[in-house]
Amino acid sequence: MDGGFESVLQNRTREVLEDCTACGRCVEVCPMPGPAGLSAADAPGIAAGVLAILRGDVSPEASARWAAVCSGSGHCIPACPHGVNPRFMLTMARLAMQRRNDAAARRKDGFARFTGMTTGVRVLSRLQLPPELLARFRPDADDPGAASPDVVFYTGCNLLKTPHIALLCFDIMDAMGLRYRVMGGPSHCCGVLQFRAGDLTTSGRIAYRTVDRLGSAGGRVLTWCPTCQVQLSEVVIPGRSDDPLALTPFIRFLSDHLDDLRPLLRHPVHKRVGLHEHPGIAGVAAAAETILRMVPGLDFVDLAQPRVGYQCNTLNPLPAFKREVHRAQLQAAADAGVTTLAGIYHACHRELCSHERDWPFEVVNFLELVGESMGLTRPDLFKRLKLMQDVDAVLADAAPMIAAHHLDLDEARAVVLSDMLGEQPLPLMR
After folding, report:
1. Residues 294, 298, 300, CA angle at the centre, nearest 5°?
2. Which residue from 228, 284, 280, 221 is spatially nearest to 248, judged by alpha carbons?
């Protein structure tokens, strides 16, 4: 199975090399060359250099840098006149560069990335949720007598760091009368961390196991995490079988069922709302806007910000650019006089929510507004803890959860410092 993953990727890479003409259209529509200090004037040359990376040939530095700073915005995909997915092409270019490293080093790197993620997810989720609520995130035990679910909600891993968002998803599905099964967490990882480290053996084993489990769970698979959506739907699933598993972003699923959702939006929400959005998963931002505009009493404002990336953390290769994107977003929200800046994804929320302290508006996930209109409330415990801006205060507040889950205090301290307080790309004002 592990060799199968690598073989499939090699075959798909050969198809890219056969189909891509290096016309440069993907470079021209990409929002990243400018921030990366690259000129798109030689777009065909940059694209040709990426093909050289895939062939193992010498390539221009500009091509390697373009591949490295790809934020997954996805503008390139419909722009390609030859049906190539340039986002996948750049993914494979980064993999090719990473696999120049020693195999043992790649395995060690992938293990370190995965261990760090699982530790953060385990500790932060337990600092916020009692055991009985946390149990809702575990896959149901096999029950031959249970009815088949309408949908399978795939959380991914890092959503559990901001569990109020996931709980609102569950509450909305409950209100819509859906039977659902929850799958996710590190035991159902998409394998992206090992993939980025260049460890295809481990990545393929993890990802194929997760796809098999999702496919056998008995319902339409809804995803939340954009990283999982891209990794599974563009890297792992294609070419694996004649009947590939289809993954639908949860927010697009909601927008496909507006007739079921609309009657549930009973309570006015008198707020002026701007949306923090990313274009990388096609249709999601538009779906979120459509849903918000349905909320009675809500005044939606287009903040007219650059559409870049599929989540804030995809901008990490360019820290200064990312800080400016966040600063401009916050300033635009203030200039528009919003009462609320609403984000879509969990990683963005973790990085932006603490700015609520310094600006004249609240920072929420947009499902909190949908839930408010439905009469549903889930407290944002992550934001409440992060706003304390003091690790000792956070640990003191979370002491009952630390005791309930028997967490190691030193480990909890380290995670709060790194995965909560440390995730602050744009420093707070004071």
Report:
1. 85
2. 221
Per-residue pLDDT at 240: 78
Model-wide pTM > 0.90 = yes
Contact status, residue 386 vs residue 354, Cβ threshold 8 Å: yes
Q: Which of 94-98's residues contact partners 24+ apart within 8 Å by CB, and which partners? A: 94/67, 94/68, 94/70, 94/196, 95/9, 95/195, 95/198, 95/200, 96/53, 96/54, 96/56, 97/53, 97/64, 97/67, 97/68, 98/196, 98/197, 98/198
Structure tokens at 30: 């990409």
Residue 138 has pLDDT above 90, yes or no: no
pLDDT at 159: 97
- Chain-wide mean pLDDT for the chain? 95
Model confidence at 140, pLDDT cuts 50, 70, 90, reads low
Domains, in order of start, for the chain: 2-98 (no CATH), 103-253 (no CATH), 258-420 (3.40.50)
Q: Which residues pair with 299 in a beta bridge?
A: 272
Neighbours of 418 (CB within 10 A): 13
Give residue-wise pLDDT tens across range 148-181: 899 999 999 999 999 999 999 999 999 999 999 9
